[in-house]
Structures are given as structure tokens and as C-alpha cells.
Amino acid sequence: MSATAYHEAGHVVARWHFGFPVVRATIDASGDYHGAVEGANNHIELAEQFNEGAEQASRNFMVICFAGLEAQRAYDPDSVETWHADSDEESAGEALWHMGYPPERTQAIDAELRLEATEFVRAHWSQIDMVARALLERREMTGEELYRVLEVQA
């Protein structure tokens, strides 16, 4: 349960940092998921909403996708299973596809953004830890509740 809380907290903090709304987060298992973060918009809609380039929004979204597993790995490397980030990997792959790079460039971009996610988790560990602890206590929180935790920490 703790590893799931850190995984979901990584997503929450990254979404907050990049301005991607969170509707709710849970560490309760449902179907194939051990936990989940529900966002209000996808990266393409947000790019249009913020008048930001779709490429940068897609890159940020990929970092958000990768931040969950990286936070889980930072918390407890032994807790990571290859399937833990299947849906995150799928979402990141879709974002990468939307960027329109030729296939020979996608592997390098993927690796670059995974590294950025690792660095993001290190730089924001205290916030991730605070959100994970709140999720462990409450199990499910709204975006508003999560943002209040983050604003106290900021």
C-alpha cells in the first residue's frame, strides 16, 4: 500500500507542478489498478487551454506519467514490478506519438524524459512524501484536498 501511495503521489505532484488539474487520487485497488490519479484534461486539451505548444505539453505529460514509477522506485526499489506502470507507459507513448517525431528520434526523447522524471522526483521529494503520507491516511483525496497539502508544503 505504501509503494502505491508514493507512486500516485509522484503523479499528483508532477501534475500540480506542470499545471495539469487533478480531480482525485486514490490508493484503493480497482480492477487492474492498485491506485489511480484522475485528471481533468489530457495534454492536448491543456495545450490549447493554456496556449502552450502541444509539444511542450506532451513532454510535461510524459514526465507526469514517468514520475509515478520513479517516485515508487525512490521510496522502495524492491516494490517495483514491470507491470506497475503499464497504463502510464501507454499514456506516455500516446503523448510521444502526438509530438510527431520520426521513429528514430522517439527512443532518445523517451529516455530524456525518463531522466527528467527521475530528477523531478529527487527535486520534489518532500512534496511527494507529504502527499503520499496524506494518501496513506485518507486513501482517497480530491484534487482540492491534495492541493491544500501541497500549498502548505510549498
Please describe what this structure looks like:
The chain has one domain (2-153): Up-down Bundle (Methane Monooxygenase Hydroxylase, Chain G, domain 1), CATH 1.20.58. It is built from 7 helices and 3 strands; from the N terminus they run αββαααααβα. The protein has helices at residues 2-18, 43-49, 54-75, 86-99, 103-123, 125-138, 143-153; strands at residues 22-26, 36-39, 140-142. The chain has a 3-stranded antiparallel sheet with strand order 2-1-3. The mean pLDDT is 86.
Report the portion of residues in β strands: 5-15%
Q: What is the structural class? A: mainly alpha
Strand order of the largest sheet: 2-1-3
Overall CATH architecture: Up-down Bundle
Any key phrases for this structure?
8% strand, single chain, globular, mainly alpha, 3-stranded antiparallel beta sheet, Methane Monooxygenase Hydroxylase, Chain G, domain 1
Short characterization:
This protein has helices spanning 2-18, 43-49, 54-75, 86-99, 103-123, 125-138, 143-153, and strands at residues 22-26, 36-39, 140-142.
